[in-house]
Every structure is written in C-alpha cells, then in structure tokens.
C-alpha cells in the first residue's frame, strides 16, 4: 500500500523546507533507513530518512523547490502501483494544510493550470522555490538552449537568488521547446521558466497562456527580438570609458546598463583588465563569450579625444537583492526592537589580571582559550546568581531559567547566526573554547542544525576582534538581555592615585525592561566584573 511522505518539520519554528538534493529517484527501491533527500532551511541542510520500504513512485517537490511543512514530498509504495487517487488535480495531498487565500497564489509550487490543453509529453517547468521565503529568482546562465536535447539529470540552468546561485536539474527528458526567461531576467516563484517536450511540438499556446493557479496575470513570453532582454533586477552599471567603443558592442548591453556575458568570459576579462563595454559579443543575443575576450583588441583613443581631458567618472551603484537570511534577521530584530523596551548599561573593566590569567592558562600544552571564552564562562556563572537576567518574557508570565544556555553571535558571509553553548556554567574554559570553535566553523559552512541554534537564555556578541571599542546590540528574543563586548584597549588609567598604562575593555548590556529592572542589570554587571577582573575565581 502506498505511503504518503510529507515535508518534515525540522525545527519548532520551521514552516517550509527546500529539497536540496534527492538521493533517490522515481523508480528506485527504498529500504527503511535509506536517506531519501537532503532538506534545506535557510540555515542548515539535514538528511531526511525514510521510515518505509518500497519503490519511490512519486516526487512532489523537485530539487531547489520549496513547500510548506506537511505538504506532499513523495509517495512510496509497491512497484507499478497506481497513486493517481492520492493526488489531487493540483498535485497536492488532500491532507495538506490549506494556506491563507491571499498566499495561495504564490505559495502553491506544484499547483498550476493553463488555459489550453498541454500536448502529450509536454512538461511545463516553473521557477523553483530555493529557500523558504524566496519570492523570485533570476536566470544567471542557461546551460541548455531552445532545440537542445535534454536528458533527465541534465543541468538546465543556473538559478540565482539573492542568497546563492544553484544548478537547476531537469527531471524530464525531451527537447527544450521554449525558454520563458532570458539570462538576467527575474520572475516570481512558479512563473514559467521553460517547456520541455517532444521535438517539433508547437507550444506557443501553452507558453502564452500558462498561468500559476490563482495568479491574476499570464507569464509573458520572452522577447523575440535580437536585442538583449530587459532585466527586472537592477544591477551595477559598468563604468564609462573615455574612448569611443565600437557600436556593435552596444548589442551586449541591456537598457539598464547590464552587460550580457558568460561567467567564464567575465572572469577572464576581470583577470586581463578588459572593459566589457568595449567587447563585441558573438554569442546568442550578442552575449559575450570566452572567444570574444580571447580575441579582443583594446580600442585606441579617437583623434577627437586626443589631447583633451575626458572625465571617466560616473555615478554608479549596485542594487543587491536581500538574501533570505538577511530578511529573516531583519524580521526578527525589527520585532525585538519594537516590542521589547530596550535600555543599555555601559561598563569598563580592568583587564590586567585577565591578560595575565590567559597567558598562564595558554602556557599549558595543547590548551588555548580566548578572551571571548572567558566572557562566556563569566556570564554563565553570573547568570546563575541573577536568574532575572536569565529570563524570558511571555504575555501571561515571566520564565526564570535555572539552566544557562549562552548564544554566541557568529558573523557569516550573508548575515548573523547564533549557535548555542548549552549548560555553559557547567563547562570548563577549554570545553567552552572547543564548543565555540566547532559551532563557529559549522556556522560559516552552513552546517549548523536547528537544534544547535535553539534554546539560548542569554547572548554574547563580541566585535572586539574587529577593533571595535564599544557598541550596542539588539536583544536576541526570547532572551531578556544581550552583552556587547568590545576590544581590549591600552590606555592611561588611574591606579592608587597614579596615572599608569593599563588595559581596559568596554561592555554594554542591552536589557528588556519588562523583565530586568535597571538595578538588577547593574547587579549582574557587578558580579560579571568580579569574574572578569579576577578570572581565577571562575576556577573555584
């Protein structure tokens, strides 16, 4: 009997998942315990194990596509079993939670209708959803062109989101009959991307009338003229040159200034210092390709410009689409900033003893701790004495946590993640150092699991290694506080009535006034000061 596999919920806040890779294909045998697919959220990719045995009969979400939790992911059953009764007309399982009406127009990846009949053997390929909040994608490069033969598993195109560029694999075989988006063009998720089918099939009616279920307008067919297509996503405009370029070179440039060039040709041009505005493209639609760069001869200045000053400067900018991680960060921090009444307590600690302590500690073979490890440990011990700072706010109650899980903010190329050091007060300094190092490495490689980013009761954000003396942070809810740690600075200080050279570090504690009164926050910092300025007490 066929079993329906739905999109799993990989964390308590997950609403959608993206299929990064299918490790099984339709027709493959599946054993209990086999890895069916890798499921990606905006922060981690996890293997999804099958709990059923049989044959993979249907895939509901293609690689790179996203769907809601509990939506149809796959069907496993007996070989040759008819599963049509399990599928509705839109390809969704009847038990799938219904999305709000205003969202169904864009969220229903698999559901699609057309105004005309689709010829037999023809498959409409739509823009995949590559992350849980992605709304549109851009075709970076087509690896297949109209008329090319496509085999199942061939890479059709490289699809660019504001987060990454991913190869988009075909799950059908046939001929590429129609391309709905040219290179550089953007479209909403589920918009027409391509049509594959038997060679010679007329799909003009399908292309011109294709609609996403519930959508209010048709997807327009790609321009047929030879001029480069309009790019909907603004990109940087190449700098002007003080020489006359060949008129033919303008064929490679769209009206918004984007130069159509293959990634390899662009790379070679950058290495050789060649201005792409001067290069005439010989590829499709005037696209600059490798041989154009290799055969390029620099244009000399015209007689009209010789001896004259021609300014080469030009106002220039680049609009970079917001990544899914950046959107998630913006949403969370905006919610925190405007719901939690923040206030800030600023202190400056004497670091002379801490510097000496760390030097002695690191003299032990195979031992290396950082100042950040010392701060995390000190915070953990201080939080045990001040549970009010280790609290969380709810509409009907305040939770005082007896355990201490400290989130450590880690910068990654496209934003910020906060892995969690669990039970930090019970760990030694070397254990904390090893945990932070491992978690930071996973964060930068996008290998953190949801469990490793959940459950923090307090957060530490350290920018001291970047030379920042002092700063404030936004509370990482549901925490009630976050500590901002600055750089250790050598400066004149007063000790015993004398001005001497000292080392100090500034810290700023952001508190939620709903849970932490000013005096409570100040008392916590006094306790923290005792540990930081006399770190040997952390070993007692």
Q: Can you summarize the main beta sheet? A: 6 strands, mixed
Going by CATH, the homologous superfamily of the domain at 324-539 would be Chloramphenicol acetyltransferase-like domain
Distance between the termini: 63 Å
CATH topology of the domain at 324-539: Chloramphenicol Acetyltransferase
Mean pLDDT: 80
Instruction: Kindly estimate the percentage of residues that lie in beta strands according to DSSP.
Output: 25-35%
Task: Indicate the structural class.
Answer: alpha+beta
Annotation field: number of helices = 9
Radius of gyration: 29 Å
Strand order of the largest sheet: 19-28-27-26-22-25
Question: What's the count of strands?
Answer: 28
Helix content: 10-25%
Folded structure, characterized:
With 540 residues, the chain is α+β, with helices and mostly antiparallel strands. Among the domains are: 98 residues, RNA polymerase II/Efflux pump adaptor protein, barrel-sandwich hybrid domain (OB fold (Dihydrolipoamide Acetyltransferase, E2P)), CATH 2.40.50; 216 residues, 2-Layer Sandwich (Chloramphenicol Acetyltransferase). It is 18% helix and 27% strand. It contains 9 helices and 28 strands. A 6-stranded mixed β-sheet has the order 19-28-27-26-22-25. It is globular. The N and C termini lie far apart (63 Å).
Secondary-structure topology with pairs:
Blueprint lengths: L2 E4 L9 E7 L6 E2 L4 E6 L4 E5 L4 E6 L6 E3 L3 E6 L26 H4 L4 E3 L8 E4 L9 E7 L6 E2 L4 E6 L4 E5 L4 E6 L6 E3 L3 E6 L6 H6 E3 L50 H10 L17 H5 L29 H16 L2 E9 L1 H10 L9 H15 L5 E3 L4 E3 L5 E3 L1 E3 L2 E3 L2 E2 L7 H16 L13 E5 L18 E15 L2 E15 L5 H16 L7
Parallel strand pairs: 22-26, 26-27
Antiparallel strand pairs: 1-8, 2-4, 2-7, 3-6, 4-5, 6-8, 9-18, 10-17, 11-13, 11-16, 12-15, 13-14, 15-17, 19-28, 20-21, 22-25, 23-24, 27-28
Helix pairs in contact: 7-8, 7-9
């Amino acid at each position: 009997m066929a079993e329906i596999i739905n999109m799993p919920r990989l964390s308590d806040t997950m609403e959608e998942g993206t299929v990064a890779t299918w490790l099984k294909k339709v027709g493959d045998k599946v054993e209990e315990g086999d890895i069916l697919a890798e499921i990606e959220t905006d922060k981690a990719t996890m293997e999804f194990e099958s709990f059923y045995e049989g044959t993979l009969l249907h895939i509901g979400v293609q690689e790179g596509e996203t769907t809601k939790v509990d939506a149809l992911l796959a069907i496993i059953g007996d070989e040759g079993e008819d599963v049509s009764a399990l599928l509705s007309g839109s390809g969704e399982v009847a038990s799938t939670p219904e999305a709000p009406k205003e969202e169904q127009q864009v969220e229903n990846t698999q559901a699609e209708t057309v105004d005309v009949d689709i010829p037999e053997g023809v498959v409409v390929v739509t823009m995949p959803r590559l992350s849980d909040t992605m709304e549109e994608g851009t075709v970076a490069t087509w690896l297949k062109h109209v008329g090319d033969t496509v085999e199942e598993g061939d890479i059709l195109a490289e699809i660019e989101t504001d987060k990454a560029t991913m190869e988009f694999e075909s799950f059908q075989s046939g001929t590429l009959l129609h391309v709905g988006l040219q290179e550089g063009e953007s479209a909403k998720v589920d918009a027409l991307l391509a049509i594959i089918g038997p060679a010679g099939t007329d799909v003009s009616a399908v292309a011109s009338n294709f609609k996403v279920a519930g959508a209010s307008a048709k997807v327009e067919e790609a321009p047929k003229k030879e001029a480069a297509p309009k790019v909907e996503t603004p990109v940087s405009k190449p700098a002007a040159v003080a020489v006359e370029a060949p008129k033919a070179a303008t064929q490679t440039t769209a009206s918004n200034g984007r130069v159509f060039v293959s990634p390899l040709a662009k790379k070679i041009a950058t290495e050789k210092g060649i201005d792409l505005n001067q290069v005439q493209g010989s590829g499709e639609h005037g696209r600059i390709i490798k041989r154009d760069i290799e055969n390029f001869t620099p244009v000399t200045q015209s007689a009209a410009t010789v001896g004259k000053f021609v300014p080469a400067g030009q106002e220039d900018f680049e609009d970079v689409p917001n990544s899914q991680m950046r959107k998630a960060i913006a949403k969370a921090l905006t919610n925190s900033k405007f719901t939690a009444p923040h206030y800030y307590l600023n202190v400056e600690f004497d670091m002379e003893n801490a510097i000496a302590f760390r030097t002695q500690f690191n003299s032990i073979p195979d031992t290396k701790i950082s100042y950040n490890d010392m701060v995390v440990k000190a915070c953990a011990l201080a939080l045990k004495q001040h549970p009010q700072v280790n609290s969380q706010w709810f509409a009907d109650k305040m939770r005082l946590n007896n355990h201490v899980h400290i989130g450590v903010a880690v910068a990654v190329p496209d934003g910020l993640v906060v892995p969690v050091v669990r039970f930090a007060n019970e760990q030694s300094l070397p254990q904390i150092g090893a945990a932070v190092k491992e978690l930071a490495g996973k964060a930068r490689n996008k290998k953190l699991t949801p469990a490793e980013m959940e459950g923090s009761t307090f957060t530490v954000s350290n920018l001291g290694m970047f030379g920042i003396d002092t700063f404030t942070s936004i509370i990482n809810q549901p925490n009630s506080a976050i500590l901002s740690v600055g750089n250790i600075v050598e400066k004149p200080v007063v000790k015993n009535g004398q001005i001497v050279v000292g080392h100090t570090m500034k810290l700023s504690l952001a508190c939620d006034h709903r849970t932490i009164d000013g005096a409570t926050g100040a008392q916590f910092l006094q306790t923290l000061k005792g540990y930081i300025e006399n770190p040997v007490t952390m070993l007692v």
